[in-house]
Amino acid sequence: MTLSQLRTFARVAKLGSVTGAARALGVSEPAVSAAIASLRAELGDRLFTRTPTGITLTPGGRALAAHADEIVGLAEAARRDVAHAGSSDAELRVLATAAFAEHAAGRIFDLFGKWVAPDSVDVIVESADDIATLLRERAYDIALGARPAMAASAGLELVPFFKYQRVLVASARHPLAAAGAPVTLDRLLTAPWFAGPGGFEPLTEEGRWFGRLTALPEIVELTSETDAVAAVAAGEGVMLALGHAVAPRLRTDDSGDLVRLHVAQTPISGLWWATTLDAGRAPEPARTLQRFVTTAEATAAIVSATGSRGLSRRGGKFHVALWS
Amino acid sequence: MTLSQLRTFARVAKLGSVTGAARALGVSEPAVSAAIASLRAELGDRLFTRTPTGITLTPGGRALAAHADEIVGLAEAARRDVAHAGSSDAELRVLATAAFAEHAAGRIFDLFGKWVAPDSVDVIVESADDIATLLRERAYDIALGARPAMAASAGLELVPFFKYQRVLVASARHPLAAAGAPVTLDRLLTAPWFAGPGGFEPLTEEGRWFGRLTALPEIVELTSETDAVAAVAAGEGVMLALGHAVAPRLRTDDSGDLVRLHVAQTPISGLWWATTLDAGRAPEPARTLQRFVTTAEATAAIVSATGSRGLSRRGGKFHVALWS
DNA sequence: CATCGACATAAGCGAAGGGTTATGAGGCCA
DNA sequence: TGGCCTCATAACCCTTCGCTTATGTCGATG
Q1: For residue B30, is the peptide bond before it cis, meaning its omega torsion is within 30 degrees of 0?
Q2: Could you tell me which of A3, A136, A141 has the C-alpha nearest to residue A75?
Q3: Does A65 touch chain B (CB under 8 A)?
């Protein structure tokens, strides 16, 4: 039983396919088969069996899969900890959902850098799903934004830190906004809906709301919600915007270029969560950040519209070197 | 970085000696050196340096040592879980201090077997120190009896479940017991002190008490406290006996063949603790047993003097196959 | 100064590990 | 029935692991 074999098995178990795992790992299919065969021989368990539709894990396979991620993750963590031990530049790997990354990450990490000793944390922000697994295999130290799927949250420490609202907005000049009266959803679905990267992520409240719709509008994904708001302001469609972000632009009397559309079941309230591994398994900086985001100071920073150093995009992932 | 290398490094880190680790692992010293050299090259850290007196870990070495036990322990746990998955005979490995094993384990596990589904747990009881490490490396699922050393208890879940008292007793016919008045410690130290296996374990309250004595008596370790009590009853010396165990034999009026010696700072009160890994890391049966020992039912079983299936000694370790 | 103890290094060896290409074995589907 | 997809196996390669014995280095100690 080697770490490499466990890594391979974990991939097979997750993808439910030997061929798929081989592709994901960038090796030939027999290479994966061989690793599995080796584990099978050593552990005396088939681990999984072939079925008409792909493969299914045996009880032993499930038991191994439950540990495999953790073991390889710990090995990675050990490697990193050794590399960073002694030097003061710890690295904190943050997994953030797109909305948080765009609207709050810059200010939060700016502030966090003043909260903790400077020169102590390096933050990498990346958007992804399957939060629980990524935390468990130590690919990230903390997840900010969406809540992990209920079923997968065992062994995790979840803390809500911000309540956001999403409201449907359109340009003040948009036909739909003409009447001050409520608009029916059906009419709205004829207009294009703008969204940030990722569209409506299913783990978010708005994602679930959207998933419940019977008919779907045309969705236009832009590279940021800021761009989406701009498009909406130009009269090109509607969007579910973050309430506190567009509040200054909402028309009250005669100011503001956007109007809120009063549709049933809006505004949509959701929570941003800070998720880490539980108890002694989360690295200390992650716990510190988790505590920090729940402070009044952090909340104030999120809602404030004042300047923040944004996140710079770099090679597909956001990377903010706070004290490089 | 292989599991074998981590195992080797963990041993070196724990023993503080390459040669010692080689002996412990049953291999030659260069074999250990080579494993370390491999880790050093891969991780880019010396891990430890030579000092006049043995070796000392570098910061990186400490970081690795903190993970190594856990990783190899998890790998072992995975191996076991796969082996036992599907079949109903889980195995619960219990680490018990000698006193608990002798006086309570039999009845506790008897009862526990009725509490949980029969045919579901197999218990191995073994006496040892360094509780925290043994739990962390998954050599045992739960420790019953002494409390782990304070410093090492991070990441552990400690629950006290029984308050015991130790009293100094002697035969009713012993010269020291002649006067009903308090006896001075100095006089007692001239008599031989009987004890169970292990003598006075330093992690227990009586061990600490004993460690504070300025002069030490002659200590006679017998294979069980029951034997020790018998020797004391025969007038051969004194002992620190468990209060609830000898209570029926203590002379009140004219019954009983033992008398309590009223010495300052006695009786000594101590706690038995049930210790597991915290949060999601402890196997479920271990948590169940941990909860069980705190029940009134379990406490009653410990103090009751009625029959229990004792633990059978087998090859140096206690082994009780409850439902073999 | 010589020696001894403890770690590091060298050389060498068998056994796995991890990879490839080629081929076999089964179940699904047109 | 004949592809076709997927997993399993065979044959073969090279590298690494893990172990040995022999020797080197270095500091403490008599």
Answers
A1: no
A2: A3
A3: no
Alpha-carbon gap: B12 to the closest alpha carbon of chain A (Å): 16
Tens-digit pLDDT profile for residues B67-94:
999 999 999 999 999 998 877 667 788 8
The CA distance from B40 to A84, in Å, is: 15
pLDDT at A47: 93
* Minimum Cα–Cα distance from B5: chain A residue: A2
A256: left (phi over 0), alpha (psi -120 to 50) or beta: left
Environment class of A186 (CB within 10 Å of its CB; exposed 0-12, middle 13-18, buried 19+) = exposed
Average pLDDT, chain B: 83
Q: Provide, as residue numbers in chain A, all residues whose Cβ is less than 8 Å from the Cβ of B155.
A: 279-280
CB contact B58 to A (< 8 Å): yes
Q: Which residue has the tokens 């340096």?
A: B49
Nucleotides of D under 7 A from a protein CB: 6-11, 17-22, 27-28
Look at B77-86, B159-168, B289-298, B315-324 and tell me which has the smallest mean pLDDT.
Answer: B315-324
Neighbours of B277 (CB within 10 A): 24
CB contact under 8 A, B78 and A58: no
Q: How far is B64 from chain A (nearest CA, A)?
A: 6
> How many CB pairs below 8 Å do chains A and B form together?
112
Closest nt to residue A2, judged CA to C1' = C17
Q: What residue in A sits closest to B84 (Cα-Cα)?
A: A60
Residues A135-159: pLDDT tens digits?
Answer: 888 988 999 998 988 777 778 999 9
Both tokens assigned to A239: 């969007």
Low-confidence ranges of chain A (pLDDT < 50): 307-309, 312-319, 321-324
Question: Given an 8 Å threshold on Cβ–Cβ distance, is B1 in contact with A75?
Answer: yes
A123-126 and A317-320 as β-strands: parallel, antiparallel, unpaired? antiparallel
What lies within 8 Å, CB to CB, of A210 at 6+ separation is A200, A240
Q: Are strands B92-96 and B142-145 parallel, antiparallel or unpaired?
A: parallel
DSSP states of B14-69: HHT-HHHHHHHHTS-HHHHHHHHHHHHHHHTS--EEE-SSSEEE-HHHHHHHHHHH
Of residues B67, B79, B85, nearest to A81 (C-beta): B67
Distance, in Å, from the CA atom of B194 to the CA atom of B222, rounded to the nearest integer, reads 7
| Distance from CA(B17) to C1'(C1), angstroms, rounded | 29
Q: Which residues are paired to B169 by β-bridges?
A: B239, B260
**In terms of C-beta distances under 8 Å and separation of at least 24 residues, what long-range contacts does B252-257 make, across chains too?**
B256/B172, B257/B171, B257/B172, B257/B173, B257/B233
